[in-house]
Write a sequence for this structure.
């Protein structure tokens, strides 16, 4: 599904930083991959490289066999297949909840308004917010906004969903409702790459956990293996600090 | 219950009453001073003369410009046609249908005789000029918005040609006086274009349009900067979210960025357009008879400069106030 080989990413502003160092990773269809690591470890950058919100400097990233780093690829077509959920939701504040979900369906997928709204209402039902279809994002709580954002990403029928710390901006009592939606998606067999600090979620839902530090992929394995017998010292240190 | 929002000690009710009264008193004092000063120099206020410049409503006498026999009075739906035979010359006088004709066919008419009388009821020169000001301003606002959005977006484009064109345009326009630009448009660009049109046998473009161009291009430069700032003020996450859904750059701009930017730039845009209405007063210099020029013309014939300049100011205030009310309405509607 996703294959990243020797991905390197540098930032030059505000100062030169080698953010990703030869990161290679495969994600199989239907797999739930959780990426954890301290802040500044490059996990969000890696996620953003996958749909080219950040342009990796070297290496290769293919999604369903299409090279993302090829400047001539149709990046909009690829992005339509790769849903993304942001830490700060990034709902469109000038549109109602339903319009948030239907806009890209109509613009990118060329669906009729009727089809798009039908799909939108189904997804709102799924995330438990069908009754809020007509309100605007700023009238919703953070947890509700993030569930809408997930519905918005799902509306494009993506082959894979990327989650960039989806619960980090939420009040603690709202984290659960968002994680529940994500768990249901995982159960349905959605391919997911999740950058998160929610270790409970990683342990319960992940098929594989990846630990990144200093721009490098340090260790990966099944949750049991990862949380009970980590091999690297850096992993052990990180786990001892957060658990 | 106290509903106090300030950070200092709450004020007593008398405080507000006193200072509101004070405000009214100062306003009245200002007006009173003007009247007292005018009275002191024996200025003769003639406010009752002013309305006729806004709406002309009076009986008009038609006097003969020829001497001879009134040979024919023709009545059609369009009005009367009177023919006066002056030797071999036929003098034709046309009158509106509601005219009251004092003569009959066969009468002998001397020069200066009153032939007829009719009532005219039409907008006066100042109202017509207000309409011109309004028309010029609205045309310039519409054109200015188009020019401003285009150049504002060019300014943030990746394409160096577009970006530099936009920077050059904005710097050129903002760096020279509007009055000079109006002269350039009319006396340089205008005479050139009209000479070329004349050569290929087309009608010249009226001065009013060169005025509109000058104002639109001038305003466009400022609108461009406002649009640029508005677009850049929309959070980066918004365009990332739109692009991550698969929208192309232009689609994201149209559906996500611009609608949000517009809400934010409405207040500065309103200020810019209010400026434009006021700046249209400069168009008198290229013989566009807008409000200011018309006021000067009326003053030179009536000599009522105090009343008419005050009336002129009030007309501008009506226009600018109407515009800001309209924009406030838009802002309330686009509150999201």
């Amino acid at each position: 599904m996703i294959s990243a080989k020797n991905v390197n990413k540098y930032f030059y502003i505000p100062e030169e930083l080698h953010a990703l160092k030869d990161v290679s990773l495969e994600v199989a269809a239907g797999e739930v991959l959780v990426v954890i690591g301290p802040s500044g470890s490059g996990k969000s950058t890696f996620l953003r490289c996958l749909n080219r919100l950040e342009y990796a400097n070297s290496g290769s990233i293919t999604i369903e066999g299409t090279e993302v780093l090829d400047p001539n690829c149709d990046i909009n077509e690829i992005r339509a297949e790769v849903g993304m959920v942001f830490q700060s939701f990034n709902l469109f504040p000038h549109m109602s909840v339903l319009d948030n979900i239907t806009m890209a369906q109509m613009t990118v997928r060329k669906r009729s308004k009727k089809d798009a709204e039908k799909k939108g209402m189904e997804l709102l039902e799924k995330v438990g917010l069908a009754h809020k279809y007509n309100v605007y994002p700023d009238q919703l709580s953070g947890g509700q906004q993030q569930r809408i954002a997930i519905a918005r990403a799902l509306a494009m029928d993506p082959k894979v969903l990327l989650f960039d710390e989806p619960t980090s901006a939420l009040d603690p009592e709202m984290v659960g409702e968002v994680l529940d939606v994500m768990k249901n998606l995982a159960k349905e067999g959605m391919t997911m790459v999740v950058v998160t600090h929610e270790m409970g979620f990683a342990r319960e839902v992940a098929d594989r956990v990846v630990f990144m530090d200093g721009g490098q992929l340090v260790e990966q394995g099944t949750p049991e293996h990862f949380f009970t017998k980590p091999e690297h010292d850096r992993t052990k240190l990180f786990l001892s600090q957060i658990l | 219950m106290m509903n106090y929002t300030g950070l200092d000690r709450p004020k007593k009710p008398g405080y507000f009453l006193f200072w509101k009264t004070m405000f009214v008193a100062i306003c009245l004092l200002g007006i009173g001073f003007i009247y007292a000063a005018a009275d002191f120099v024996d200025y003769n206020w003639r406010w009752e003369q002013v309305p006729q410049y806004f709406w002309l409503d009076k009986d008009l006498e038609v006097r003969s410009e020829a001497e001879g026999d009134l040979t024919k009075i023709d009545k059609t739906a369009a009005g009367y046609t009177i023919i006066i035979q002056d030797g071999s010359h036929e003098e034709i006088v046309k009158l509106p249908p509601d005219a009251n004709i004092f003569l009959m066919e066969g009468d002998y008419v001397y020069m200066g005789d009153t032939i007829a009388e009719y009532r005219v009821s039409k907008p006066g020169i100042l109202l017509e000029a207000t309409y011109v000001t309004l028309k010029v301003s609205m045309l310039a606002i519409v054109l200015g918005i188009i020019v401003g959005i285009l150049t504002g977006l060019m300014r943030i484009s990746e394409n160096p040609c577009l970006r530099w064109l936009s920077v050059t345009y904005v710097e050129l326009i903002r760096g020279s006086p509007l009055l000079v630009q109006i002269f350039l448009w009319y006396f340089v660009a205008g005479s050139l274009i009209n000479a070329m049109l004349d050569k290929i046998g087309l009608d010249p473009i009226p001065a009013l349009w060169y005025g509109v161009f000058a104002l639109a291009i001038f305003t466009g430069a400022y609108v461009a900067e406002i649009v640029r700032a508005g677009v850049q003020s929309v959070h980066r996450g918004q365009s990332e979210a739109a692009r991550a859904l698969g929208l192309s750059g232009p689609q994201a701009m149209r559906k996500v960025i611009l609608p949000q930017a517009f809400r934010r730039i409405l207040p500065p845009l309103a200020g810019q357009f209010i400026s434009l209405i006021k700046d249209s007063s400069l168009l008198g210099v290229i013989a566009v008879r807008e409000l200011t020029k018309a006021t000067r013309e009326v003053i030179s014939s009536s000599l009522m400069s105090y009343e008419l300049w005050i009336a002129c100011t009030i007309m501008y205030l009506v226009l600018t106030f109407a515009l800001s009310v309209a924009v406030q309405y838009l802002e309330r509607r686009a509150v999201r």
About this structure: Chain A touches chain B through 27 residues (CB under 8 Å). The first strand of chain A starts at residue 2 and ends at 11.
